[in-house]
Amino acid sequence: MFTKAITVGTAILLGVVPAAAQQRGTVELGAFGSATSFGSSLNMRSGWGGGARVGAFFTPRFSVELEGGGIRAGRVLGLEDVNVGVIAARLTVIPVQAGRLSVLLGAGATHTDTYFIESYGPHGLLGAKLRLTPNVDLRIDGILDYMANQGHTYGGLHAGLSFYRQPRSLTRTVTVAGPAMMHQPDPAMAAEHRRLQNIAADYRALRDSLGRPSVPRAASSAAALATMREIIYFSHDQSELSDSAKAILNDKVTVFRANPAMRIVIVGFASQPGTEAYNLALGTRRAEAAKAYLVSRGVDPIRIEIATRGEGQLVVEGPGELADAENRRGQFRLLIADPYLAPPKK
Q1: Which domain holds residue 119?
Q2: What pTM value is reported for the model?
Q3: Which of 9, 187, 200, 293 would give a disulfide with 52, using CB separation of 3.0 to 4.6 Å?
């Protein structure tokens, strides 16, 4: 039984591919070693074993899990050691999450089986997960099981790794031919269409004016340029805006209001720790956070584009917190503006 549990756990681990953890639809696959104390009421001593689990998240914090394991336990009074099989099904929740650490609570039912005793009963879990990579967690669980038809309680400790796999989407679009329908014009859509046409016309006029070198141009405001080029920084592995970053963005809002034709690109960057794909996604989230804040302050979203460079274009080379802090940033680049950049109105 113990050998079979280890074989199943190993097979599951070999079949795992990287994926984002703890998102809706994510599947958790794990294997663990276990230490279990049965207590004298069962005439059994502590036992050692292992097993595997599979779970599925239906929200970022709630999942259902099925777990199976085998234990080799000693017995008192000179009796021969016994194999114990345990299968548990439970609902698991993450009530607390701080950085890389997550606390777990679980409840469900368990089935315990040896050659001389078999029982069902309630099952409880208190555990913790520590994120090692975006796709792998170190997981430790404390387990408590009650054998309802025998009146015995036993507890154990499980320690192992959890891997995450995101199922591929099976959704596809099918076009079905149907009768032609006459639609009445939507006033809101028509107004939005006119607004976009006006923006495109302004863009073409501005592009043409920038292409005429004979037109004298005033110098841009140095303060406005400096404000738009000012960089914002982020905490390690975070995309939330700090108070200082919001203050910098507030200054940029005033420049937007003074320059209605101005458009920008926000580029998100990350430091070296983490995979290339993870850092590209982190850079995107940082750029999106900056754009969302500017839009919340009244800037038209069509005036802002976003991009990500991940860990590319490092400002400071080499590992270390000083280099990482300088590289976790969001940069702002003017895409198009009037012939000169006007200072904010006072």
Answers
A1: 2-165
A2: 0.46
A3: 9
